[in-house]
Amino acid sequence: MNRPIVRGLVAVLLLAAAAAGGYALRDRVGPRASPAVPVAAAVSIPEALQQGFVGVAEHVRPAVVHLGTIQRTKLSRAPSLPPGTDDPFFRDFFNQFFGSEGPSTPRGEYRQPGLGSGVIIDKRGLVLTNFHVVKGADEIIIRLSDKREYRGQILGTDPKTDLALVRFQPDHPLTVAPLGNSDALRVGEWAIAIGNPFGLDQTVTVGVISATGRSDVGIATFENFIQTDASINPGNSGGPLVNLKGEVIGVNTAIVAAGQGIGFAIPINMVKRVVDQLVDKGKVVRGWIGVALQPLSPDLAQSLGLEGTAGAVVGSTISGSPAAQAGLQQGDVILSYNNIPIEDYRHVQRLVADTAVGKTIALEVLRKKQKMQVNVKISEVPDAGPRRATSPPDKG
To answer: Are residues 347 and 306 in the same domain?
Structure first.
């Protein structure tokens, strides 16, 4: 999509420059003549944009790493290459890590290879990536942009957001990618994805922010994805999505296989909260109130006298949970959370999860067409593991 956009921009700017020149020519006849706008000045705008992309690539690519993983399995008979990986490129990839005989050994040990991306976020050798990239890995090989290779170790994982931190011991100064502010994103802004699709190291693709706040995608338990049309493919997982300032605004995670130009990235502000806890505690502690929530349907909203479907319906509460103890009832509609208007049931889940354990929050609730306040004390979420999606998108 890049070339048509840039060409279109050039064409528009040239037309604008020509029009400006026409107006300037007309003005010369009148008493107030104004200088013509040089065409070169207009053309320099897309050139500056191009240099912006180049600058971002040069600045961020050294912080993007290639992650190769190995998962060992004892088998009586070693299988052939996995389905979909028997093309020449993947054979070269396998040979690089496993030798010319493929990913099996004479002892019948099958070494399942994996491929992904990551981004260095700390000079001590901390690499941010997706959980699904390193899940079950017995070995992790980190290859930097200068081709140096290191053994990596998992520092911490968070399956519920599909994030992981990997650590290695650097022997020279590292380039660290700066982290931006995903809450400030606007639809239509430029987005640049950097990673290793199909093992093609340091690939840069450009698109825009197509949407923010995407949930119900079926990838992780807590979803608030950035949608982008910057090309993302298998192997991009864990790589950064950056803005024109060269700041990481998301972690590329998945694509929709049935569509073109639909990719998803975890917003960096969510990532920051997870990373801070993984570094400090080795795990992520989330808030919980023990309530099952449902969407607010248009028919129910109309029957309750509500305009629109903003809110979340209480489907049930768990016996003995903070929600039950606070008196939340089936059929209650949650309208706000500590004075924050609720968008949908996913919004409530994210707010609860991000609230410190032990804190009491105020819920504005609609019950039998009457508004009331219910105070709930946040507890720690039970460790039940990630939600299994019935038909998840392909993970890049």
So the answer is: yes
> What are 241-273's pLDDT values in tens digits?
999 999 999 999 988 877 678 999 999 999 999
Handedness of CA 82, 87, 88, 93 (dihedral sign): negative
Q: Which of 88, 59, 100 is nearest to 199 (CA)?
A: 88
Q: Which of the residue ranges 14-18, 135-139, 355-359 would you say has the lowest mean pLDDT?
A: 14-18
d(CA 371, CA 246): 46
* 97 and 211 both lie in a single domain: yes
Instruction: Look up 132 and say whether it is catalytic.
Output: yes
Are 129 and 275 found together in one domain? Answer: yes
Burial of 261 (0-12, 13-18, 19+ CB in 10 A): middle
Residues of the domain holding 51: 2-61
Question: Both 143 and 246 in a single domain?
Answer: yes
The single residue of 66, 104, 117, 132 carrying the catalytic annotation is 132
Residue at 335: amino acid letter: L
Tell whether 136 and 275 lie within a shared domain.
Answer: yes
Average pLDDT, the chain: 82
What is the per-residue pLDDT across 90-137, written as a single tens digit (0 to 9) for each?
Answer: 555 555 555 554 455 555 778 889 999 999 999 999 999 999 999 999
Q: Of 9-18, 91-100, 224-233, 382-391, which one has max mean pLDDT?
A: 224-233
Is 215 annotated in the active site? no
Would 396 be classed as within a structural domain?
A: no
Q: Are residues 215 and 306 located together in one domain of the fold?
A: no
Q: What is the CATH number of the domain that holds 324?
A: 2.30.42.10
Structure tokens at 351: 């707010």
Token pair belonging to 179 = 């982290």
From the list 237, 332, 344, 347, the catalytic residue is 237
Name the H helices within 161-297: 268-281
Is the domain of 308 the same as that of 264? Answer: no
Catalytic residue among 158, 162, 332, 344: 162
3-state DSSP call for residue 325?
A: helix
How many domains are there within the chain?
3
Single residue among 242, 261, 280 that ends a domain in this structure? 280
Is 66 among the residues known to form the active site?
A: no
If pLDDT is split at 50, 70 and 90, which confidence band does 43 have? low
Predicted confidence at residue 311, as pLDDT, reads 95
What phi-psi label fits residue 350: left (phi over 0), alpha (psi between -120 and 50 degrees) or beta? alpha
Asked if residue 389 is part of any domain, the answer here is: no
